Please model this.
Amino acid sequence: MKITFPHMGNIYLAAKALFDGLGVEYIIPPQNSKKALEIGSLYSPEEICLPFKIMIGNYIQAIEKGADTIILPGSCGPCRFGEYCEMQIMLLKRLGYNLDFIVIDAPTDIGIRELYRRLNKISSKSNKSINTKMKSIFDAIKVMNLIDEIEASVHNFAGHEKISGECKSILNNCKKDALNCNSPKEMIDLLMNYKEKTNHISLNINRNPLKIAIIGEIYTVIEPFANLYIEDKLMDFGVSTKRMLTPSWWVKNTALLPTKLNSLNIKKSSKKYLSLNIGGHARECIGEAVLVESDDFDGAIQIFPMGCMPEIVSKSILPKISKDKDFPIMSLVVDEMTGDAGYVTRIEAFIDLLERRRNNVLFRS
Amino acid sequence: MKIGIPKGLLYCKYYPFLQTFFSELDAEIITSDDTNKKILDEGVKYCVDEACLPIKIFHGHVSSIKDKCDIVVIPRIIQLRKREYICPKFCGLPEMVLNNIPNMPDAIIEPIYATNKIKLFNWATVAGKTISKDKFKIKKAFNNAMNAQHNHKTGIKDESYELNVALSGHPYNIYDNYVNMNVIRKLNKLGVGVVTEEYVEDKMIENEVKSLYKKPFWTFTRNNYGFTVNAMKRLNINGIIYISSFNCGIDSVTIELIKDKTKDYPFLILKVDEHTGEAGLDTRIEAFVDMLERRSLVENNISSHG
Model:
């Protein structure tokens, strides 16, 4: 059994640590690229959203490398993501691949027994003791938290750095080196090292860079390929960015979900504009927009794939927030046809607008 | 007090309930006109670009009555069946409308969980409170409204036609004759009868849905998928027509699920949006009917591909 999984940001590092620890064979699909998207758009239904198409590309590229089992998290919310597994199973079957799909759904929807049976399919392939298995799960979570922390601080420092490009190169080297690690322990040590490094980036504290929050649909904000590397672009412009939706946030949020103690600050801040959970991460998007406004940010950029149902609702609410709080918010819609030049122009124009607002005498008076 | 009820979305299915409930509470009811060009234009003007046609039309309906009434009813229908939803846009409908249309009057935006009578009554108490303080009156109005809804039957089943098609899609696309450009009348004129999902038993739909890997969590997917697949096997029909609004997230899944079962059975998808030209629609329907006719003439329906 060779396990594979779809890409989403840096999740592949955590997955690598997990499967290395478990001693299960796995294949990391090649990094997302035009090729993966081309394969995906060729076979996927036309009107489905962008993440589906990229995922199909990932699967097929991984299958070509020998994978025969696919792990996919599920959901039973009103968003389309929950139906992905059904359609992807159907699609890959039609293409003639003989695969095993392991869909990790919430126990409230499929029953705890079924969830256990599905998880057992993976863990039975590992001959490690139960303690080692548990440890590798915790190691994987640690890796995920570390890489998310490194990424967050690098994005934050990008506006202050003295040597331009230092932040970006640290992050890129970190990812590259982490992929060459052979054991979870080695990877954790390496990430700790890099975390220490981020604390020693030489900073110009007197600079007051633009601060932009990235909000929107979780896959497109986390996966850099889907949002055309917006965070890298903003780092090049010397803009500090912040993104609250990360894989580690998602794990924490999902774990706390049954207790209803998850993301209390978002629930509180989104109450005025969207009081219910409507599926996807629309509520988080609204809540973050309100939160970052009070946190002295200059603006926010919302990103979502074409046709994303929950984000369409939040897109229609955001102008109201923008107007109420005098806070610029730009919405970017991405799909497989998004052209780089048009996209960059919009980002540049938005940054120009934010800079000019600062020079205005009335700014935050 | 004047209560405004927009004639958009699921009004076509649940109007007896809404009408009876509010008129029993002695409110004056103002409904918008049937969908027309003006309502569509208003909707397109106010609604966010990415939304689908039915949501845009709903915006138009609200905007056409907002100045004539004191309270607008915006039904935030979240669930009609247990563990199933309608659509994320339905859940956020009041927010979309209230944040996009200026000068809105008060609105009833309480979420509707219509999975059982008690939960639906919760909605009725909150909605009724805005009009009447009398609890018994609300209870009575609610019961009468429930009865009116039960006695109301929707659905079309044409007899006496040589050719028949199953007409599937979301109710607001099937029953809004402006959106679908009178597709039912057009089919009848061409000598084709129509059957809708109400004429397949719930049990049959349930059976079809069970064959899926995962139970669909949208009521529309469940109904449309169950109906079309079942109709194809059991009803005496010659083809399937599916009316879908452009950019509908739910239909993008449903249609794929259906296609997987129909294989080379005649299946026409009519996409509608605010630009749909009538001539193009006519051509497609005529071509489809021509094909059905020719298919029934060939004795054993063997496709030319062998």
Observations:
- Chain B has a mean pLDDT of 89.
- The first strand of chain B starts at residue 2 and ends at 5.
